């Protein structure tokens, strides 16, 4: 017998049962037993006794049925053994004697009929299986990778031979086999993320959700403060945790072992995107169903990228405000390229561009061109839209045009700028100026930069120079004596000219009412319908100043300081120059007649021309309750304006540009019905004014609060919304550029376009703090789950996860971003029909 005998099956002999229990122990009669002395003849095996004949032993505890089965099996085994021995010894050897033939059956010569059992090895090694050529390894064959060389058990079948265990153990302990087993385990492991998440306790999930909410709050606070979040977020969170926030302390301590901090730059960027998407989704859901006004302008950020800032103005719950929509990176600033970028922007955000009713740009040819400008191309996409030239830009151009006609004004502007640069970029000169102010017992102040496009700054710059005029002149004298720089001498020479000083005082008086109008145009809640009234107030104030100058009654103006400043100039002029008459003798009254009064007259005409409105825009003023006459004159009031509004918005519009035709339906069904509805609404408007509702915005809020008004006057309600949509200026866009420069600084000029847009949206449109509902939506958002659920921290309890409708809307909005826009752009403006300018 070999050492592998345990894997072989051998014949069962009679001697093998010598140690087994006898049949007598089970109650069989002795007659059923095989006689021990008879070897020549084997009797037939009797059938098992019946149950009635079976008498179990008293000491046996087994049940009768089980004993019967056991006896039956024993008889069958004995029968097979006897028949096998009979066949083996049936033909005895003639050399064997009778005595030898009468010996026990164990001395009979039998053939070796042992058979190899492969099931033993296959059970022990589950990776082993038999093929037609031999044995192979199922794991190495399927998961062993690309096998170029011949390998046993992989692409070469193996025969087990006489020592199979050695071969099998050697293969099982090989590195390639272990690698294949690991890959098989990964493949066969069906891990259900949802089931794994459910294993966590509810308390752990709530704690993790609380941590995520606090992380969102920290990030939101940093963005609102315009801090650099990517490199400072982790330090800020650790600082907040040290103040006693237990959730963050526990999270930071656990992160040292789990290596999951949720504070990496990648996670911070994803969280920033989620915050931006949450804010944007609420804005877009409101905008898609409303008519709106478009505001846009172009500028360059500190990363030297050409950016187009897009703002929209629409009615949101009775409040009409400007909202930031996004930044568009421009490759070229041509009207055609800007128009295509805006189309892609609106289509990508699923905003119907045909809902645009007004658009406001600056006055450059690219934006305001009548033939090929941006406003002409946008009016082709939405024929019911109306172009508004920014009134702030027009007001700045009024003074810029006057600077071309009045050289003294242009010279003053350059002098103010040179004086500011001299002290701004030289710490030495700024220090001398500070010392002279302290010597005079004054609080040290710095000069203000005067910008040609921001005349509000000119007023403050001139007032600061007049307030510190004596110290400025003394500082320039001291600096010139020490440094002998010609620039200092030139600035000092111009600044001590009496006509320049007189022009500075005149400009202060004139810019005060002009800047009031400028600030009114820059306010967020400005109403275009009362713009004419504000312009008229400014013109009246300028006429009042002109009358004071003509009557020599300017004691309460800035020009009254002319005598004091003239004395300062005279005292600081060398005696030789005064004797030679090198210093001009300026007569204030003569200066006002020759320069001041003509300057005011020209400025008044410029403002009137710049703020001239079209008849359609003026017609909206008839809806303002402040313009209503008394009840006796109410019958004929505004009929012409109402008819103009009904005709424009009550008829379909058709626009043809470069051979392409755009047709849109009217906003009001029947012009005659709209006109009659407006006439009927006049008494109602008068009663509103008597109740204290004295502006269009308040009238609109009354409509929003009263369903009866909206039902009775639906066309009036629509026109009231249009009246508030009219933008007076693009000041909101300019403020977005200031925000862009505060975020994308010289130190942070590597912000990507997507991150810059997201941070600007949060900083511009975000509330002061996130509500609990918004935090829950952020944690429940599917995108956040996919990115973070595989980490050790479980942010979301999916057992009770049922996102709200707002969250579903936000997720749907994010999904809509990925839609292709090529086909829709072709439908809006086919390429073969839009010929580039």
From TrEMBL:
Chain residue ranges for the region called Disordered: 38-58, 81-106
Stretches assigned to the HAT C-terminal dimerisation domain: 709-762
One GO molecular-function entry: protein dimerization activity
Highest taxon above the source species: Eukaryota
Sequence ranges assigned to domain DUF4371 in this UniProt record: 250-372
Alphabetized PANTHER family for the sequence: DUF4371 DOMAIN-CONTAINING PROTEIN, RAS-ASSOCIATING DOMAIN-CONTAINING PROTEIN
Name by which UniProt lists this protein: HAT C-terminal dimerisation domain-containing protein
Organism: Mytilus galloprovincialis (Mediterranean mussel)
């Amino acid at each position: 017998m070999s050492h592998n005998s345990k894997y072989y099956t051998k014949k069962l002999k009679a001697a093998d049962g010598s140690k087994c229990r006898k049949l007598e122990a089970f109650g069989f009669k002795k007659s059923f037993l095989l006689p021990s002395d008879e070897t020549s003849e084997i009797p037939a095996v009797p059938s098992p006794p019946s149950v009635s004949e079976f008498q179990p032993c008293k000491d046996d505890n087994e049940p009768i049925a089980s004993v019967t089965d056991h006896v039956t099996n024993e008889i069958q085994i004995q029968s097979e053994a006897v028949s096998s021995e009979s066949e083996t010894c049936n033909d005895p050897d003639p050399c064997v004697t009778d005595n030898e033939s009468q010996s026990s059956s164990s001395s009979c010569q039998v053939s070796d009929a042992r058979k190899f059992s492969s099931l033993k090895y296959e059970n022990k090694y589950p990776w082993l299986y038999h093929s037609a050529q031999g044995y192979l390894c199922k794991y190495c064959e399927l998961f062993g990778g690309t096998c170029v060389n011949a390998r046993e058990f992989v692409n070469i079948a193996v025969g087990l031979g006489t020592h199979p265990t050695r071969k099998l153990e050697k293969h099982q302990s090989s590195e390639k086999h272990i690698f294949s087993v690991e890959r098989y385990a990964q493949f066969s492991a069906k891990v259900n993320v949802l089931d794994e998440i459910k294993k966590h306790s509810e308390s752990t999930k709530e704690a993790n959700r609380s941590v995520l909410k606090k992380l969102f709050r920290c990030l939101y606070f940093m963005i609102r403060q315009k801090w650099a979040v990517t490199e400072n977020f982790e330090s800020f969170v650790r600082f907040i945790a040290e103040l006693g926030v237990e959730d963050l302390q526990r999270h930071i301590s656990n992160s040292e072992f789990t290596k999951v901090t949720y504070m990496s730059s990648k996670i911070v960027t994803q969280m920033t995107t989620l915050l931006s998407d949450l804010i944007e989704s609420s804005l877009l859901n409101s905008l898609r169903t409303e008519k709106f006004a478009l505001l846009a302008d172009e500028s360059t950020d500190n990363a030297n990228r050409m950016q187009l800032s897009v703002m929209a103005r629409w009615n949101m719950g009775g409040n009409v405000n400007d909202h930031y929509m996004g930044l568009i990176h421009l490759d070229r600033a041509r009207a055609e390229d800007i128009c295509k970028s805006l189309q892609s922007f609106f289509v990508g955000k699923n905003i119907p561009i045909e809902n645009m009713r007004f658009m406001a740009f600056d006055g450059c040819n690219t934006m305001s061109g009548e033939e090929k400008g941006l406003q002409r191309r946008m009016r082709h996409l939405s024929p019911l839209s109306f172009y508004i030239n920014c009134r702030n830009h027009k007001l700045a151009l009024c003074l810029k045009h006057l600077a071309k006609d009045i050289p003294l004004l242009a010279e003053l502007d350059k002098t103010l700028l040179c004086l500011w640069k001299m002290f701004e970029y030289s710490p030495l000169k700024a220090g001398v100026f500070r010392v002279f102010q302290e010597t005079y017992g004054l609080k040290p102040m710095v000069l203000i930069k005067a910008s040609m496009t921001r005349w509000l700054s000119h007023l403050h710059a001139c007032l600061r120079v007049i307030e510190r005029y004596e110290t400025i002149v003394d500082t320039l004298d001291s600096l010139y004596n020490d440094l002998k720089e010609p620039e200092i001498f030139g600035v000092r020479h111009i600044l001590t000219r009496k006509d320049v000083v007189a022009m500075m005082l005149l400009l202060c008086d004139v810019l005060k009412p002009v800047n009031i109008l400028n600030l009114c145009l820059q306010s967020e809640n400005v109403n275009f319908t009362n713009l004419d009234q504000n312009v008229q107030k400014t013109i009246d104030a300028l006429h009042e100043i002109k009358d004071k100058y003509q009557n020599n009654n300017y004691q309460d103006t800035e020009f009254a300081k002319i005598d004091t400043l003239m004395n300062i100039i005279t005292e600081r002029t060398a005696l030789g120059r005064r004797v030679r008459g090198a210093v001009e003798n300026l007569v204030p009254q003569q200066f006002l007649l020759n320069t001041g009064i003509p300057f005011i007259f020209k400025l008044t005409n410029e403002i009137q021309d710049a703020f001239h409105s079209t008849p359609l825009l003026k017609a909206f003023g008839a809806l303002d309750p402040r313009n209503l006459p008394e009840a006796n004159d109410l019958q004929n009031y505004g009929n012409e304006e109402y008819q103009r509004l009904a005709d424009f918005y009550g008829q379909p519009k058709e626009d043809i540009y470069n051979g392409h035709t755009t047709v849109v339906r009217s906003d009001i069904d029947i012009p005659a019905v709209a006109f009659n509805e407006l006439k009927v609404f006049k008494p109602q408007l008068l009663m509103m004014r008597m109740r204290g509702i004295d502006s269009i915005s308040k009238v609109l809020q009354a409509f929003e609060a009263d369903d009866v008004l909206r039902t009775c006057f639906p066309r009036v309600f629509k026109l009231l919304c249009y009246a508030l949509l009219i933008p007076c200026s693009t000041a909101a866009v300019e403020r977005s550029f200031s925000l862009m420069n505060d975020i994308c600084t010289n130190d942070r000029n590597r912000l990507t376009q997507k991150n810059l847009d997201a941070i600007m949206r949060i900083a511009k449109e975000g509330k002061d703090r996130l509500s609990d509902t918004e935090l829950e939506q952020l944690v429940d958002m599917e995108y956040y789950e996919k990115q973070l659920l595989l980490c050790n921290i479980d942010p979301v309890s999916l057992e009770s996860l049922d996102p709200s409708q707002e969250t579903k809307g936000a997720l749907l909005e994010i999904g809509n971003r990925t839609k292709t826009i090529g086909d829709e752009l072709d439908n809006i403006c086919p390429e073969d029909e839009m010929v580039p300018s």
